[in-house]
Write a structure and sequence with these properties.
Layout lengths: L18 H11 L9 H26 L7 H16 L1
């Protein structure tokens, strides 16, 4: 039996943080910055937590507007709220 072309291929899910990419990015942007051993992992975790909070807040905005799809406006409104909260 032939596999249908409509089926999506499995994508490779990364299980590790892109450490070399983050280190290279830090070196280019801030050459004199000194991070401890796990500093790049903390930055990656912070980024993942921000994206998770953004997705949750966007979903809530879409739900309040009775939309089934998260639109650009929902994400922008959520970003404003999250960035205001994170300022401290």
């Amino acid at each position: 039996m032939a596999v249908s072309g409509a089926l999506s291929r499995r994508t490779h899910v990364r299980r590790k943080a892109p450490r070399t990419f983050l280190r290279r990015l830090f070196r280019r942007q801030k050459p004199r910055l000194r991070l401890e051993t796990g500093g790049d992992l903390l930055v990656h975790l912070n980024c993942l937590l921000f994206v998770h909070r953004l997705a949750e807040e966007s979903r809530m905005n879409a739900f309040e507007n009775k939309d089934g799809i998260i639109k650009k406006e929902h994400v922008q409104a959520a970003a404003k709220v999250i960035l205001k909260k994170s300022r401290g």
